[in-house]
Amino acid sequence: MKPRIFRSLRARLVVGAAIWTAISVAAAGFFIYGLFYNYTYELVDDELNEHLNELVSLLEIMPDGTPKLSRPISDPRFNDAKSGFSWQISRNGQVLLKSASIAKEAIPVPNDALNGGEIRKLTLSGPRGPLIAFEQSLLPTPLRLQIQTEAAVVDRLLPRFRTPLTFSMLLLSLASIAAAVLQVAFGLRPLRRLKHALKAVESGKAEKLPEGFPVEIQPLVDDLNNLLSVNAEMILRARTQAGNLAHALKTPLAVMTNEGYRLESLGESKSASLILQQSRRMQQQIDYQIARARAAASHQVPGVIAPVAPALDRIISAMNRLYCEKNLVIDVSVGEGCVTACDHVDLNEMLANLIDNACKWATAGVRIRATADAKKVIIRIEDDGPGVPPESMETVFRIGERLDDSVPGSGLGLPIVRDLAQLYGGEIQLTRSEIGGLAAVLVLPKARSAAIESETSPLI
């Protein structure tokens, strides 16, 4: 699996821009430093050439052939031993004149011969390190004039440029990365808007995505809106067909049931019993399949949500009237964020079946607790009745199965609840209640709208 950072489009763009900026700025820094390095040495070469020309112009040859300067060279650094600048005049390898900056040892004189008037650049070994030197030969007296400076003089200039250059390149990198971050944030802003629009559709706050996206995204938005419209139309058609099927089978089934009762009244008890039994089974299957088909359509609809508290209020009010002779105490507690990602009709049917079972078997009271975490809503419904044996807790989920025929019921309640819960990605479990009877634990997915309100949406 890829690291999380590489699954983010924003992170990819920012990291890519940062890497490219670092490489580009580093390359530019090295290039600029190289230019400055070459330029500095060119300046030194030009300066040494000028000093060599000045030295030649100041040179005078005495009658005995010895050289002499008409005046000191103009640059005072040739008089300072620490300056690194020096000059000397030699003949046949013997130094005749030298600058005051050469205190003791003379600068080495090459053994090769120079053509008259030839100027060349060379590197010599001085007492304190390498020297950059220019020399020229004067004829007819074979004099060799040398001007040199220590390479360390130039090297001391480079750090003065390298430090501010590095600092400037670093600031440029940070500024470029900051600009890239702003550009990515601005460029991906429509995607952030699309993200919130999709959450609004999913949570039921909007039926379709808004208009006004950039031309690169608007075709996708249009396709999504068309898909939402087609999906809603298909679901409506499925519900209509399910209702039509129920009505189409209702009349023939009623005729068969009446025929069974007629035969029973005529003394045909065996045939009547068979017809009535099969009619009840058909009615059970029709009710079960219709409920399942409706839920299968509903759970695919974006934005389907149902809060638990209002559904419980309506159901408990009905149960108090239905079981008023039992004087049941129904204790209800609903926590914050208990909003399910279910159709409200299906939630009512699941809760009504479970609470009806609890009230049917309870002796004194029913306890209902609803809580929610980050992803699911948990509804626990308990009664203080006789409960269900552990070996029968799976049997009651079969269609038409009933453990006690003396109590009215169709045997469809728990199977429908399980199928509805599973269609929405939830589940139901039966266990022993803490108050003595049966506990039904219904787990349903939490609506995204409730999760969105408790989250802080990050910048895309």
Task: List its traits.
18% strand; 3 domains; alpha+beta; five-stranded antiparallel sheet; 50% helix; rod-shaped; Heat Shock Protein 90; five-stranded mixed sheet; 460 residues; 9 helices; disordered C terminus
Q: What would you say this structure looks like, in words?
A:
It is a single chain. With 460 residues, the chain is an alpha+beta fold. The protein has three domains: 1-187, no CATH class; 221-298; 306-453, 2-Layer Sandwich (Heat Shock Protein 90). The protein is built from nine helices and 14 strands. The chain has helices at 9-58, 151-187, 189-202, 218-265, 269-298, 308-322, 344-361, 413-423, 448-453, and strands at 59-61, 67-69, 85-91, 94-98, 119-126, 129-138, 143-150, 306-307, 329-334, 339-340, 365-372, 376-383, 427-432, 438-445. The strands form four sheets. The chain has a five-stranded antiparallel β-sheet. It has a five-stranded mixed β-sheet with strand order 9-11-12-14-13, covered by helices on one side. Strands 1-2 form a two-stranded antiparallel sheet. The longest helix has 50 residues, at 9-58. The model is unreliable at 402-411 and 450-460 (pLDDT under 50).
Structural class, by secondary structure, is alpha+beta
- Main sheet? 5 strands, antiparallel
Helix-strand pattern = HEEEEEEEHHHHEHEEHEEHEEH
Question: Can you give the helix content as a percent range?
Answer: 40-55%
Outline of this structure?
The chain has 460 residues and is α+β, with helices and mostly antiparallel strands.
